[in-house]
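re: ur question from earlier - yeah i can do the single chain one, its not a big deal. heres the input i used so u can compare w yours
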Amino acid sequence: MRLRFPLRRPTRLVGGLLVLTLGLSAQPALTAGPALAAPDVASPLSAAFATAAARYDVPRDLLVALGYAETRLDGHGGAPSASGGYGLMHLTSNPTLHTLDEAATLTGLDRTVLRTDTAANVTGAAAVLRSYADRAGLTAADRKDVGRWYGSVVRYGGATDPAVARLYADTVYDLLSAGFTATRGGTVTVTGRRVVPQRGELARVAALGTGGVGTMSTDYGPAAWAPAYSGNYTVANRPSDYRINYVVIHVTQGSYAGSISWFQNPSAKVSAHYTFRSSDGAVTQSVREKDIAWHAGNWTYNTQSIGIEHEGYVDDASWFTDAMYRASAALTRNLANKYGIPKDRSHIIGHIEVPGATHTDPGPNWNWTYYMQLVNGVTGIGSGTVNTGGSGTLNVRSGPGTSYAVVGSVANGATVSIYCQTTGTTVTGTYGTSNIWNRIGTNRYVSDAYVLTGYNGFIPNVPRC
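and the output i got, formated as tokens:
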């Protein structure tokens, strides 16, 4: 019945293949970390992965992890990434990477369908991965060992720098090891397991940010160093040549490793000084601070600014994690102190605020209030004790209000860390009536009406969300 399930969904025949039309437009709800549930192949998206994996004899979980690493399984309505990648599997068409074209040749599907139809996009990625496995000489027995697909994953990412190539593939294999669950038109789960990636020659290459010799930045200690292609920025001697007056905040519209790799691509004609990773706030520098990165689309602002990219997409708030906010704010604070940049919104700006900008990043989901509090050193964390007035639990919601989804619970008597506070739905609870909500984790909020903090109202020195 599971194999027949896609036939009950809207379908069409394209290029000789029956394509499942998913029409998945809602943003995904994501939960990182170990996942113990068995894969749910009853959802349309999970069925698409199962069908494509079976057709091309590609490990299903590897295919899902690759898509999650690229886009968190969000096709973004068929809009391209910054490097020309389409769909949740990031099938790419640019002057040096042609996985979209390869998918069209291998499947017989039209490029437009591969870009916009979710099931076709997954099918195309499976076909490309299998073709890489065949070229690497993987036998049918080899293909059953997910660790042997490492080289094929590297090739799919298209990175030319060995450290970036390893970063890309290791991200996929780390997801396989940890497990995760994504919800988008149905649940897609990858169960964590022990994986042994066969890295080949890349086993001798230090991955970015691991302390390998020659990989760290000389401008900013926490950053790894992966230089952009020399034709994607301008050599200068700042701040002697140009005063540095601004920090410009960007969103990559792509993955961390993919964006770093794109800056190394001669056809990109773009770069940024720094790029941050969503999951843990890791940072890589691609252009020296003395040099002029091509990031703002305005030469005057390029000469006077440091460009900082953040992994993710402007229309998906789940990429903007507390770890990334805090790590990025630490860098911006360092730059402001170093170059005398005022720590205000006139000098720490979004790409959209650059005169003549055609980009909208960092977008409406970027929390400027919280970010600027962190930049200015307002980093105090409060605490409180949950009191439900009984033995029950307190709902944890994805936002500051009762209309937001319940994403968990905390027990009566539990102590919680409060990272920031905001106003939302008014709730009457153990401690009276309040519209204050406490953020106790990434996208995790509880009503202050049930939390004993020692203060009547907002907690002093705790940032506003």
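The chain has three domains: 5-204, 224-375, 382-452. not sure if urs matches, ping me
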